[in-house]
Amino acid sequence: MNITVIGSGYVGLVCGSCLADLGHKVTCVDTNSSKIKSLRKGKLSIYEPGLEKLIRKGLSKKNLLFTTSYKKGCKNQILFLCLDTPSLKNGAVDLSNLYSAIHSIKDHLTSDCLIVNKSTVPLGTAKKIKKQFLKSVKFNVEVCSNPEFLREGQAIKDFMDPERIIIGVDSDLIKRTMQKIYCSINKKHNKKIFMSVESAELTKYAANGFLASKISFMNEISILAENYGGNMNEIREGLGSDSRIGPSFLNAGLGFGGSCFPKDLKAIIYEQKKLHLPHGIVASALEINKRQLNLFYKKILNFYQGNIREKDFFIWGLAFKPNTDDIRESVSIKLIKKLSPKVNSLTLYDSLAMHNAKKALKGIPNINFSNQKYSNFNQIHGLIICTEDKEFFNPRISELKKLQDAVIFDGRNILERSILEKNNFHYEGIGV
Ligand code: UGA
User: pTM to 2 decimals?
Assistant: First the structure.
């Protein structure tokens, strides 16, 4: 099938290159000409495992094209919308990128088409888009909702082998078209779940709201565990073995970040307030997440009786989670900004996110970056771990022993307290 993907950001690139790999002929449209220039050469400005390779494959097979021209893009009758929908200051969703794409489509449409919306949008947006076309173009434009559930770091796998494909449609014809687009995914098991357009739009928010609430719930329990001597690793196992609860997203820690959870929770809360609806769990999940970072910060201060002026720390992990260079809403970056004016120095390390962190932390005092995770440990007082990157799981004890105050603040519960204490370290985790 001939498909156009509008927006060559994270979701658009994954979606476009995967659809091309499934055998479709895909045209990716983005108004950023320098980005399109690089993409035509197979070069990406973001890191996602396997993505560059897949894009190069599509380019060489000539079933993946990149253009800035809506005129070219609108020649296809299936248009995927993959536009960024960030938060406004008041928590509302900023739909300006989405609507500017809609305007460009309207100007260049030459036939009937199906718009497949993958961007995360408030309830009712698909209907509003359809109305806009009804008013201003002579072609029949259908709009369906097909929210994405891609996790950064494993987005290709999530697209090619999804647990479910949610599709909100309001006609059998669109349903059949969507069946065809995804027919080669999971042939053995039907992963497609059809529902109304509104339900699909809300399923996306509900999924992110629920997952974030799971994390905040565990973080709330971790405070009880700390006070009564429970261990969150054991509690997680005990809880997760109940199939009604499930084992994933139960890691207590520094809390959630990224470009999705915080933004989507804010959007839910905004919509609830706008409509004067009862609310509670989602707002609490966001509140607990903020509190979690402060509690960790206080743990560091408390260890030093409030005085960290002369202290030097090493921080492992700058991205919002492992396996990505994305630092948006990174808890680590927030912690660095809180700590940096109070300490002598912070040395920062991340194997993927260093370039983005350098940009985000420009002008922040008392920080320096290291390409090696054990650099100058004998001049460092304590280690702070902010992400659960695999390379941090088994640190070299001989290197850690060089730390002047022999203290480790583990914001992701990845190290073994017993091993560290045997080696005379002071260990602070989150409810472990
Ligand atoms: C999230 C969802 O998991 C995807 O399904 C969704 O498609 C995506 O948002 C989106 O809306 O686009 P992502 O933001 O890539 O994906 O990251 P996650 O792996 O979900 O992690 C989010 C945050 O939660 C990270 O900061 C992570 O460290 C934290 N987390 C995760 C915990 O603190 N504890 C856990 O047990 C799991």
Answer: 0.95
